[in-house]
Amino acid sequence: MPPPARPTRDDVAELAGVSTATVSRAYNNPESVAEHKRSVIFAVAKKLGYVPDEMASALRRGKTGIIALLEKSRIETASDRFLSTLYADVIRGLKSVIDQSKYRLSLITVKSIDDIKVLKSGKFCDAVIAHDLQDNEMLKAIRALKIPAVCAFREDNTILPQVRLDEEYGGKLAAECFLASGRTKPAHITGQLTTIKSCYHRHKGFVEAYGSPAIKTVDGELGINGGYESTLKLLSDIKNGHIDSIFVVNDITAVGVLQALQANGISVPRDVSIIAHDNLPILDTLPVRLTSIDISFRKIYSTAAKQIIGNMENGLAMETIVKPEIVKGDSV
Amino acid sequence: MPPPARPTRDDVAELAGVSTATVSRAYNNPESVAEHKRSVIFAVAKKLGYVPDEMASALRRGKTGIIALLEKSRIETASDRFLSTLYADVIRGLKSVIDQSKYRLSLITVKSIDDIKVLKSGKFCDAVIAHDLQDNEMLKAIRALKIPAVCAFREDNTILPQVRLDEEYGGKLAAECFLASGRTKPAHITGQLTTIKSCYHRHKGFVEAYGSPAIKTVDGELGINGGYESTLKLLSDIKNGHIDSIFVVNDITAVGVLQALQANGISVPRDVSIIAHDNLPILDTLPVRLTSIDISFRKIYSTAAKQIIGNMENGLAMETIVKPEIVKGDSV
DNA sequence: CTGTTAGCGCTTTCAA
DNA sequence: TTGAAAGCGCTAACAG
């Protein structure tokens, strides 16, 4: 006896005593098949180990069933290293939704506009999630595919529907947290305030929540050293009691802030409260667990997945805004 | 005029004045087509925007062209969080090779053995890379698929071909580095020495490189606190000058080691040299940049990808051992 | 080197 | 509710 060939729809149909079309319907439109036939079909399928061939149905339907995460090939940059730690969240967010659906996730690297154009004619995927694609020409090429697409983790764009973080809300959460703990003399440490939109919005949300625009803001360098230096500028005010709380635009910079405070004998949260932003794993390694605003890539990308599936099935292409959450530590 | 339908092989064949089979050959076996016809075919294809339909060829060939990264769905654990930071390297390693090939990468979550069985009959993929799958039953189910498979990042197994790290070599590198810098009184801080194989092998490699088995080893708790506590036990020996170098089994634990040394006024590397293991991003946040053994998931997974492609094309299923590299910091 | 031909396994009208 | 029939777009013998 030859090794049993992979069973096909025909085998199941014959054994179940129905037509091949009925087997197909049992899978794709169960309600249209009589209850008793359906159960026979599935029983036979199970016995035979039959599973519909994805490629054949894809060809016939003209749909691949694949959602692609599009990423640009890139040389490592500093911001890349920062993103790396969150990459697992990107994938988990996507998977949490896609695994529950009939779709599958494929990872595609695009080096050029041509790599994008090919996607549609080559039938590589039914829909696209653009991850950290900063290039407007690429976004336009994606739009030109005329397949469902969303863009996540990118500064505001008007080319593709997007899922993005409410950056102002993060600043507001920080302000509210300080206020709730009785801190009323806030400062803000940031960098590239006017050029990086997220910095701008975090600052804006923070300041607006207080209603007074005169909040002491240090617009220095981002990063550990930058945080250290910026903190030195606030030192006397902290010692005077003119500042009792600092919102730092991101965790990395906050590491430097913490180092500077420690080096100068200032205790957190006794002398000054700190709230950081991003809630990166790096916080686990600090002597004080910082309160931080979680940007939750998980949520952004699970939302993106939901949105793209909704788009494929209902045709709605909208923009979604995800609100960050505050994760409390011991620094307030 | 209706919107131009997606061009097919037939359109290209007609316009190029050749048969459809020749068009197909031009793509799949270019050498078998006369040079001049080939160029006409590609020119026409370009003009028409023709790209071969992946699904149709997959069906016809009986191959999907997809390599799947299989992961178990999991609740977050501590080791998971550790792995998370390296997940981007896993994907980059895979992509660096797969993007250069004709294959594509798909991410599949397996919740149960059944999810694995379905892979073959459903034609979801041609080959499988098992990522951090610790369950032997699952590995066996993968083997039963009889498709090319490799297993990466897992303790030694005999079920599937694997790509794994030479853990002993890491220990050896640390020893050699200490010796090269004139340090001759080593100690080792580890944990679960007998239960975790990687700990066992790192220790073994370290000790063997010295040739003397009497190296002071603290088998304490892993993690930041564990590293702190273990270091306290070595404190007097360090102060006495009986220990001039410490190899720490992983970076996280080394963070605690560093904290304990600092708290006790011991300078790195002046009083004692430190080498850690894993080379995680977390090292960037420490006051002293530690020398560390890079486990390079990137390399492990790019190797895994190469191996699986080799397996598909040449049918060789072998085991590969990847050697870690030492990344020098300022701690030796 | 090239053309003809026979499907891969499935879905979806259409008609019953 | 079901079955018959017509392909989806491509590849791989085979014969020339």
Can you characterise this structure?
Chain A has 3 domains: 9-52, 434 Repressor (Amino-terminal Domain), CATH 1.10.260; 66-165 and 297-324, Rossmann fold, CATH 3.40.50; 167-294, Response regulator (Rossmann fold). Chain A is 47% helix and 17% strand. The first copy, chain A, has 12 helices and 12 strands. Chain A has helices spanning 9-16, 20-28, 35-48, 54-61, 78-98, 113-121, 136-145, 167-180, 197-210, 224-240, 251-263, 297-314; strands spanning 66-72, 104-110, 127-131, 149-152, 162-165, 186-191, 216-220, 245-248, 273-278, 291-294, 320-322, 325-327. Chain A is elongated. The N and C termini of chain A lie far apart (74 Å). The relative contact order of chain A is 0.11. Chains A and B meet through helix 4, helix 5, strand 2, helix 6 and helix 11 of A and helix 4, helix 5, strand 2, helix 6 and helix 11 of B. Strand 2 of chain A pairs antiparallel with strand 2 of chain B, so a sheet runs across the interface. Chain A binds a DNA duplex (16 and 16 nucleotides) through helix 2 and helix 4.
